[in-house]
Amino acid sequence: MPAVTETIETVQSVTESTYKWGFETDIEMEFAPKGLNEDIVRFISAKKNEPEWLLEWRLRAFSAWKAMVEPRWAAVKYPPIDYQDAHYYAAPKTKVGPKSLDEVDPELLKTYAKLGIPLREQEILAGVEGAGSVPAEGRMPVAVDAVFDSVSVATSYKERLGKEGIIFCSISEAVQEHPELVRKYLGTVVPQGDNFFAALNSAVFTDGSFVYIPKGVRCPMELSTYFRINAKSTGQFERTLIIADAGSHVSYLEGCTAPMRDENQLHAAVVELVAMDDATIKYSTVQNWYPGDAEGKGGIYNFVTKRGACRGARSKISWTQVETGSAITWKYPSCILQGEDSVGEFYSVAITNNYQQADTGTKMFHIGPRTKSTIVSKGISAGHGQNTYRGLVRIGAKAKGARNFTQCDSLLIGDLCGAHTVPYIENRCVSAKVEHEATTSRIAEDQLFYCRQRGLTQEEAVGLIVNGFCREVLKELPMEFAVEAQKLLQISLEGSVG
Amino acid sequence: MLRIEGLTAEIDGKEILKGIDLEVPTGEVHAIMGPNGSGKSTLSYVLSGREGYEVTGGSATLDGVDILAMEPEERAAAGLFLAFQYPVELPGVGNVTFLRTALNAIRKGRGESELDAMQFLKLARERMKALSMPEDMLKRGVNVGFSGGEKKRNEILQMALLQPSMAILDETDSGLDIDALKIVSDGVNAMRGPNFSALVITHYQRLLDYIVPDRVHVLMQGRIVKSGGPELAQELEAQGYGAVQNAA
Ligand SMILES: Nc1ncnc2c1ncn2[C@@H]1O[C@H](COP(=O)(O)OP(=O)(O)OP(=O)(O)O)[C@@H](O)[C@H]1O
Ligand SMILES: [Mg+2]
Question: B73 and A452 in contact by Cβ < 8 A?
Fold first, then answer.
């Protein structure tokens, strides 16, 4: 069979068998009744034993949400979502927020072991299934917060981090233990009524991670949260809040997977980052939600609002995302560059295969003088996949000497897929400089043949070329995860190679 | 031994190879010369299995095994190597990653153990030194921004690492300066031995002063029209292809 045709067919034949994370954990669960109304919001808040102010905050979000309509401007197509036909709370029946791993349900421990996520402290992240040629020795430990459906089931290294004054826990726990911090920052970057999905999240968010890095502290290890959707007919609404105080530094990573199901499940998260003077937050995502089957049935709707505020001078927020999963991805990790000389970065790889759709990009708001932003987006479309980069660079009148550089590259595999680039630039400052570059290319037949002549299989060749295409983004990932991400790229594009 | 019998092949329905008969016994180096467009590169692509080159008749075997039925990577594993006339750029793919992936793929195919990063680097450095290639070429993207001569040397480096039993060198001498020509020729000569054969495609007799062939074949309009010893290359240099054509 001719090589290119074969590649296309290989890529198109990606089926459930390649999604190795699609199993379901059989565990006793507690659900809120299906549907969404004020009582459900109260139910969630009561479950979490929340203070009155937070319940009111949720209710305000809920009434804002009721008055809003779902955004339809993204280049994605899906049937109407029935918001009443889902459970907004689903948690394993064991007691909420276990204190030690010994109290965690063994079924859950098994689940995370199967996913390759280390919850025990001395263990280190070995990566998903034989990520392996990199030796395990010498790798840094990674602190993990594991969120299972609506609740956090375990957080590791809390004590060790606590010695440095670092708070790393679930947001539910933070509400109980550090209410002053949560109240001070929650919703200050993404307000409750920011957009339809953010409002929904604000009303019904159930768990997520909370991080506070005190002044001048450099977080000694990678922090990570692993999100797992398990239960049927549920949505996951997680909320993450990271605050880096003056002069601090943190690198945080999130990963996510879900079982394979015919139904579409909604994941509507909100992530807020705050960086004070001279602080740096590096936020990496390896998004591997179930993408649906080869016919486009099932898969997660990943409708996410992520935004970081560079409040302090010389602060820096860097988003790196590798988006391989989800039926639909709708997310625009953004930076509000308030502090003078603050820096925002967005590095993205998005793969759409089969019938996956991604409308993703970033918004960079340059407010302070000499603020700087870099955007590097790599979109890969295969099968019938549709991939849109949507970006906004807005430079305010006071952002003297601001600079932006944007590069959007698209790679097409086969001729049934599509790539689109929608860059918006609004510049109100004459001394600012904005640069935009865009390319669209295909994997060339001669590149494939060259690799195969050297002994690589079709799949290895595609994987190598795609990884080369994404290199500028992958090198931004923490080393511990780069190998895993590379494998994932290859798997997302492969058939089940025997 | 490479044995080609009555090989015909077409591209986009146009017949390019019109019945090639050729034998390269194990341990020998043969040269193919011929005018532009006569089908030399086509022959190399047909033998290595490139998409779009359709075999319409005849056979080709390597050590008795039919290679035409194999995937390109299986042919590579069987010992066939093609040094490309126009080496391909792979942006973002580090040369070192590519070379190691290729070597390990071939080793796996041969049932040998894979080399780890350290073992590989040691081997690569050794081979590069022999080819007077600067080490920083390992770090750069495959052929990206390489000069014409550097690309050709990179092909020979790959050959030296992969240790094929049958190499086709398609105009590897084109674009090389005099020193590079000598280095590349030394690289090829170093591989010569009882288990290595090569088919060297060239336009210039000069290369054959360095890599002295056992046989020289003239390919014209999709057929081998004349074969002879090394002196045939000299004749061609002196008289051009017209004389051969008239005699044929
Ligand atoms: N895709 C194609 N469609 C039609 N004809 C083609 C195609 N590719 C190659 N050819 C033709 O096949 C013939 C042989 O080409 P080939 O590249 O094998 O020549 P060559 O002997 O290697 O020449 P050179 O010495 O210039 O490298 C040429 O006439 C060329 O135009
Ligand atoms: Mg040629």
Answer: yes
